[in-house]
Amino acid sequence: MAATPSFSGDERINLTSAEVLLADGHAQGLDLLVAMFAGFGVMRPRCCSSGSEVKRLIATREFNLFVVDSALADGDGYEFVRWLRRSNLRPNSVAPIILITGHTRQADVLKGRDCGANFVVRKPASPLVMLQRILWLSRENRQFVESAGYVGPDRRFRALGPPPGMKGRRSDDLSAHVGAATTPNLEQDDIDALFQPKRVSL
Amino acid sequence: MKTSRLFKVENKLSEITSRPGGRRVADALRAAEARVLEKHGDLAAALPEASARLKDLLDGSDANPGGALEGLYTEANQIFALAAVLERKPLATAAYSLCDVADGFRESGEISWQALRVHVDAIRLLVQGTGSADADAAILEGLRQVGARFLRPAENVAGT
């Protein structure tokens, strides 16, 4: 869904107090996620095999991250994510969601994006890919969208405005057309002055 | 119609992950990889059972064809996930191919049980291990031909 974020091995990450919910319809898949997240420092994740278990848990607890497999014991993960996003159970309904898929057609990636997941990760979900996604989510500043057809993080990773030559559909979309300058260009000294530290009196 | 609304949400994950303490990213990654490696034995042990379930589903398909097809897809998906983690590429590819054909049959409504049986037999063989890369390649080529006969090109994102 997006380019691979970069991070340095010396960076620190503290997930010890993160409330993480892991959901997978298969016992081995869930075991694997628990092991991986224990390595990341998440010692007591909440684990569920079905959407109905997750629904019970989120009614009483707040989570900071959901990791949901597309195959849950009682239905598909896409539908669960769609339900969660529209549930209005704040803050859980706006929490980051990583959706994991096995057999993945292009349509499934689009379905994952359109159900409101922040990321779709195809199996095998390696620790490297999972950690990259978590770090990305921890720096995420995408806005949230609520509309009739979609609820979830803004599906545009970068807001570049409407395509050239097209009028934007949003009231705050700016035109891609750059007009002529209306004031004189700054002299280089003026530009340099903007970077000079100056004493201010408060 | 509901009005569209764009708004900021508090990134609690960011606040939590940046608290003092925790571990270096490189250490977290190493620890996670080591813990996943410890699980490999359990994952490998689950493969024979999963492949036996494929055969049971196929054998019982007369009674409930739709349920059997759905079950085959689900089990094949699980075998793909296990084999991919274990880096057993031929097995992962065969399981993925079964997912492809089962999914294609689900959509078209026309099921070739023979094509499914070829896949199940191939997966059971690969779970046991052929011991030969050439034999693995020949099995996968056979499955590729079966898949090509029933699937539209570029049906999926990618195999393994």
Structural class per helix/strand content of chain B? mainly alpha
User: Which CATH class of one domain in chain A applies here?
Assistant: Alpha Beta
Low-confidence parts of chain B: 155-160
The CATH class of one domain in chain B, by name, is Mainly Alpha
Describe the largest sheet of chain B: none
Principal-axis shape of chain B: extended
In quaternary terms, these chains amount to heterodimer
Q: What is the CATH T-level topology of one domain in chain A?
A: Rossmann fold
Beta content of chain A comes to 15-25%
Secondary structure tally, helices of chain B: 7
Helix content of chain B: over 70%
Unreliably modeled segments of chain A: none
Helix content of chain A: 25-40%
Number of strands of chain B: 2
**Distance from first to last alpha carbon of chain B:** 43 Å
Rounded to the nearest angstrom, the distance between the terminal CA atoms of chain A is: 48 Å
Mean pLDDT of chain B: 90
CATH architecture of one domain in chain A: 3-Layer(aba) Sandwich
Percent range for β-strand residues of chain B = under 5%
Mean pLDDT of chain A: 86
If you had to describe this structure to a student in words, what would you say it looks like?
The complex is a heterodimer of chains A (202) and B (160). Chain A is α/β, with parallel strands linked by helices and 202 residues long. Helix content of chain A is 31%, strand content 16%. Chain A has a domain at 20-153: Response regulator (Rossmann fold). Chain A is built from six helices and ten strands, in the order ββαβαβββαβαβαββα. In chain A, strands 3-2-4-7-8 form a five-stranded parallel sheet, sandwiched between helices. In chain A, a hairpin with a 4-residue loop joins β9 (144-146) and β10 (151-153). In chain A, α3 packs parallel to α4 (106-115). Chain A is globular, with a radius of gyration of 22 Å. Chain B has a domain at 43-150: Four Helix Bundle (Hemerythrin (Met), subunit A) (Up-down Bundle), CATH 1.20.120. Chain B is 72% helix and 3% strand. Chain B is built from seven helices and two strands, in the order βαβαααααα. Chain B has helices spanning 12-17, 25-38, 40-59, 65-85, 89-108, 113-128, 133-150, and strands at residues 5-7, 23-24. In chain B, α3 (40-59) runs antiparallel to α6, α4 packs antiparallel against α5 and α5 packs antiparallel against α6. Chain B starts with a strand and ends in a 10-residue tail after the last helix. Chains A and B meet through β1, α1, α4, α5 and β9 of A and β1, α1, β2, α2 and α3 of B.
